[in-house]
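Bumping with the actual sequence this time:
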Amino acid sequence: MLRSFFVGSFLCCLAHATCAQTPYHHDYFNQKLLNSATQGQKDSVKWAEPKKATVLALVLPGAGQIYNKKYWKAGVVYAGFGGLMYMWKYNTDSLKKYQDIYVSKLDTSKIDLAPKRSEASIKSDRDFHRRYRDISLLGFVGLYALQAIDANVDAHLKEFKVNKELSLKLTPEIYSTRHNMGYYNGFTLTMKF
């Protein structure tokens, strides 16, 4: 009995799966014929090539965004690299300065450059600037990777079209009735696309 139930369920699912694969519209076969007839012709719309955008972004940061005609994103990339360069330069110079002060503090034969500061506070400042110099280098690598990924994804999404009539509507239903349900309270979520 249980065995026949599972066999029947399996056959039902199999039949449903094969029916689900059939097209719903009668224009499906006409569209297939049209696509096969125009397969040799090129599309009149020129889409961005994701591979080219990625290679451009890897060769010159921001070039992939310019290729995708997202000029404001290229500006963000250049501003990010400029900020990271400033951060790296500032922290490198400060690290060198505090390293020299720390060495002069340890070496008693040299002139003490910071007589009122302790060795621990100078060492703390030196380590602080070393840490942020290293973070700025990691930021370079991260921004470089992110801008290349962004150029690739943006080029892929050029072909993605969103219907202008896409909407989602949430409607409350208070004391509504439905067949075989009676009265109920709830919400109806309607998606239009």
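The tokens above came from a reply further down the thread. The longest helix spans residues 119-156.
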